[in-house]
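Lecture notes, part 5. Sequence design as translation. It can be helpful to think of inverse folding as translation between two languages: the language of shapes and the language of residues. The source text, in structure tokens, appears below.
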């Protein structure tokens, strides 16, 4: 299965700033499962270009922080405490 970055061949002319990425992360985390992609973009606290939002959206999707359900709604799925638990479990170590 090809990753999203391999499927897209668009040239990115502008990369988002960290504060913009964090704003989108926080908004999706607070409104998990409420909105579809375009509705998230239109309801963000600060306006941004849709292309910039797509770069952030694809990053969050590829990094496993968000997922899209069967209705197309965006859900926050990242759980750092669970990751720490599994990383500290020696029985799960690669041998």
């Amino acid at each position: 299965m090809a990753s999203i970055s391999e499927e897209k061949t668009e040239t990115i002319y502008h990369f988002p700033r960290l504060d913009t990425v964090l704003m989108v992360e926080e908004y999706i985390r607070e409104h998990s499962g409420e909105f579809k992609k375009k509705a998230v973009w239109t309801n963000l606290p600060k306006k941004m270009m849709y292309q910039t939002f797509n770069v952030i959206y694809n990053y969050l999707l590829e990094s496993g922080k968000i997922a899209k359900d069967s209705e197309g709604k965006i859900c926050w799925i990242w759980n750092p405490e669970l990751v720490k638990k599994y990383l500290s479990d020696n029985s799960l170590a690669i041998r």
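The translated text above is only one of many valid answers, since several sequences can fold into similar shapes. Strands lie at 66-68, 74-76.
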